[in-house]
Amino acid sequence: MDSKTDMSGEALTSQQVKEAYFTASQRQLVWTRFKKHRAAMTAAMVLIFLALTGICAPFLSAYDPTMAGRNKDYLNGAPTVPMFCDKNGCSIRPFLHTVERERSLKTNFRWVETVNEDKRRYVEFFVTGSQYKLLGFIPANIHLFGASEGSIHLFGTDASGKDIFSRTLHAIWTSLKVGSIGVFISFVLALIIGGISGYYGGWIDSILQMITDAVRTVPAIPLFMAIAAFIPQTWTAETRFFFISLILGLIGWPTLARRVRTHLLSERNQEYVLAAQLCGASSSHVIRRHLLPSFTSYIIVDLVISFPYMVLSETALSFIGLGLKDPVNSLGVMLQNVTSADVLMNYQWYFIPVIFFIALVMAFVFVGDGLRDAADPYSDISK
């Protein structure tokens, strides 16, 4: 009797699971499948972590990333890593050793560092430092950490004495902002152009597809080189920032526009569209309230997948000198410093931002792949 009850209970549970699966909304199905994608979930957590560090960069960093926060006495300084134990014993508080620097004839007058292990400098938390605006509007001057004496540079300093750790955190946020603005512009253009082209068809579709193909065939690098030649040198860093974001958005919409067009061409003759038209709905209402929501998950997937390409484009342009420049901190600007042989041979800590750049791009790629797989929830019904 008990075995029959257990079997009937298992059958009922299985039936309930199937009913829940087939009655779930598209968003619920996508989320359920996405959670099963371990690589995508891990990448999503990495992406959230990097985004939060970028947002809270002024608080997390010990110094101002611009020339105002530079350490003129520690140019091209090696990373100072906190420790808990040394030859003199252990401490519950992290500390640093005092570093003495001098130029040596044996090293062609490069800095030679001598560590004084008998003198400790303790790391302090929630210290008062330079003024900043958290989230862009909250005035504050409290930083997460600092040194009781001297300075602390977790990733070292560059040739001008600016803290690489502070610059890296701010660069992550700058690159994310450029990508967000570029993706938003391309998203709006893609929905408008792809929606009109797919819904109306005919000669309107032909003209818009000619424009789309023309934009897709324009070579990006020569275009940016031509634009860079006409950018006034008097432009501020903020103006250059928004201009680069605008250009990235204006050339990034054709792929999504084609996908929107393809979907609308196949959906515009469906019964629910005809019913809305018979009820007197306008064309913009049908596109906005009926056609586009029918494949929202696919649009979100395309947006996420396009993010790394925007970040890569900004980084590449800044790397070759056509994008953002100092004093703006972006990953591309920071990667400009790793091109010399002198850095490769003597200042390897300049490559630390490269690790964050790779992590950011790969996180977007894995999240995009996970969302792309999850956007087709019925592909594994039999599993």
Task: Describe it.
Helix 3 (38-55) packs across helix 15. Helices cover 58% and strands 14% of the residues. The protein has two domains: 66-162, no CATH class; 168-380, MetI-like fold (Orthogonal Bundle), CATH 1.10.3720. It is of the alpha+beta class and 383 residues long. 29% of the residues are buried. The protein has helices spanning 2-23, 26-35, 38-55, 57-60, 164-200, 202-217, 220-230, 237-250, 254-267, 271-278, 283-291, 296-319, 331-335, 341-346, 352-374; strands spanning 83-86, 89-104, 110-134, 138-147.
Task: Throw out a few tags for this protein.
383 residues; alpha+beta; MetI-like fold; 2 domains; four-stranded antiparallel β-sheet; disordered N terminus
How are the SSEs ordered, and which strands pair?
Elements: H1 2-23, H2 26-35, H3 38-55, H4 57-60, E1 83-86, E2 89-104, E3 110-134, E4 138-147, H5 164-200, H6 202-217, H7 220-230, H8 237-250, H9 254-267, H10 271-278, H11 283-291, H12 296-319, H13 331-335, H14 341-346, H15 352-374
Antiparallel strand pairs: 1-2, 2-3, 3-4
Q: What is shown here, in short?
A:
It is built from 15 helices and four strands.
Work out the radius of gyration: 27 Å
Main β-sheet description:
4 strands, antiparallel
Give the CATH H-level superfamily of the largest domain. Answer: MetI-like
Query: What would the CATH topology of the largest domain be?
Result: MetI-like fold
Number of domains: 2
SS class: alpha+beta
Number of distinct helices: 15
